[in-house]
Amino acid sequence: MNIAKGIAYAQQFLAENLINDPYLNAKADSYLLLQSVTGLTKSQLMAFDDRALSAESQQKLTALLQRRAKGEPMAYILGETEFWSLNLKVSPDTLIPRPDTEILVEQALMIAKAKSQQQGNVSILDLGTGTGAIALALADELQKCGTKYRILGVDLVLGAVELARQNARQNHLGNVEFQQSSWFENVTERVDIIVSNPPYIDSQDVHLQQGDVRFEPLTALVAENQGYADLQKIIENAPRFLQPQGWLLLEHGWQQGEKVRSFFSENLWHSVQTVKDYGGHERVTLARLA
């Protein structure tokens, strides 16, 4: 079997075995899997598609295809994914970063740059950092524009903390630290901005049995009180860890905006607003401390 036949075989296999997956891109997945087993780039695969695949590569491809056929996310199979402009390692200890979370990064960046202009620097806390995606995307952009910053990312899961540290090193980003903490438990300083994409899915939500989330850690997805428990906890406790005029930005479910805004209002936050995602759904709510 050569590369061309391997690509064709992989596409057909995925199309036949993931027929009910609305997000399947059999061609793209096939190229990514062949890149993984051969170590070649996509352009090299296309240029040398008559090159023979070794028996070892064929065996690896078959094993990866079987995993993908069971619905396992490509990010977990490949051990990495792209977020913002960064290549990030992922593992079953962490959620897979999604495009909607870039809305949170965009909003935090605008506030961070404004804060830096006012005071010469900015400090940020990322709660439930996972792969470190939010913290590292912010660091990357602030570093590029010469902003002085300090970012701390915390996560309950030690494996996630270690993975985030690897991602920081891999992307050559400094002034970012990661430590283990259950929300604010081990946080000892006040910051200018707090960001978080906490668990916000109801444990009874039928979507937990569909798609990629079947393979992701429930502790990073599900919260009590119909998905609102962690959102409410962060809103209530964040003032003790923010500087005056500090900001809190939270990602939440597309139908949770109204309730999240009410939590902010009940706790006397100011300038409460919700930003929609690329699909037009309410996705990020932010507010300023008095």
Give the SSE layout:
Layout: H1 3-17, H2 26-38, H3 42-47, H4 55-69, H5 74-78, E1 80-83, E2 86-89, H6 102-119, E3 122-127, H7 133-144, E4 149-155, H8 158-170, E5 176-180, E6 191-196, H9 229-237, E7 242-251, H10 257-266, E8 270-276, E9 282-288
Parallel strand pairs: 3-4, 3-6, 4-5, 6-7
Antiparallel strand pairs: 1-2, 7-9, 8-9
Helix pairs in contact: 1-2, 1-4, 2-4, 6-7
Give keywords:
globular; two-stranded antiparallel sheet; seven-stranded mixed sheet; 9 strands; single chain; Helicase, Ruva Protein, domain 3; alpha/beta; 290 residues; Rossmann fold
Describe the 3D structure.
The chain has 290 residues and is an alpha/beta fold. Helices cover 40% and strands 19% of the residues. It contains 10 helices and 9 strands. It has helices spanning 3-17, 26-38, 42-47, 55-69, 74-78, 102-119, 133-144, 158-170, 229-237, 257-266; strands spanning 80-83, 86-89, 122-127, 149-155, 176-180, 191-196, 242-251, 270-276, 282-288. A 7-stranded mixed beta sheet has the order 5-4-3-6-7-9-8, with helices on both faces. A hairpin with a 2-residue loop joins strand 1 and strand 2. The longest helix has 18 residues, at 102-119. It is globular, with a radius of gyration of 21 Å.
In a nutshell, what does this entry contain?
The mean pLDDT is 93. The protein has two domains: 3-71, Ubiquitin-associated (UBA) domain (Helicase, Ruva Protein, domain 3, Orthogonal Bundle), CATH 1.10.8; 83-88 and 93-288, Vaccinia Virus protein VP39 (Rossmann fold, 3-Layer(aba) Sandwich). Helices cover 40% and strands 19% of the residues.
